[in-house]
Specification:
single chain, alpha+beta, 2 helices, about 20% helix, elongated
């Protein structure tokens, strides 16, 4: 199950996490470094998961990152703050994807998409998404 959500539009998100840009996030020419964008996305994704996914995580299973895509759309500079929007954008049999946008005001500076695979903690192998958890993901996909 996949949606055609425009990750560059602030209105596509209901959940945001605000992060401060640190001077140490910048490179020699003064713009935010690509590694800092990955850290900002991680911070937003983890806060989203903590609020919406972790409370419903089935016993003995965990979502593990299998893929991350980042599209750098605009330069970003220190000082300032950004809002990181996060939402479920796709649901598979054993995985799901979280789409994200980093916004400076209304302007989207970066988008990202992370695929997480459900792993059985004991066997360390991928597992099917249990139906109750699929229901949580589906509700978030259509929110």
């Amino acid at each position: 199950m996949q949606s055609d959500i425009d990750l560059t539009q602030r209105a596509s998100y209901r959940y945001f996490e605000t992060e401060k840009i640190r001077f140490s996030d910048t490179d020699m020419i003064g713009h935010v470094n690509n590694v800092a964008f990955a850290a900002l996305l991680e911070s937003g994704r983890t806060a989203y998961a903590h609020a919406h996914l972790f409370p419903h995580m089935p016993q003995g299973l965990v979502g593990v990152m299998a893929r991350i895509e980042i599209d750098y759309r605009r330069e970003l500079h220190w000082p300032g703050a950004v809002d990181i929007g996060s939402r479920v954008v796709a649901i598979g049999q054993r995985s799901y994807a979280i789409g994200q946008g980093i916004f400076r005001g209304e302007e989207c500076v970066t988008t990202g998409r992370t695929t997480l695979v459900m792993i059985d903690r004991e066997t360390r192998k991928s597992a099917l998404l249990p139906e109750p958890y699929r229901g949580v993901l589906a509700a978030l996909l259509h929110a």
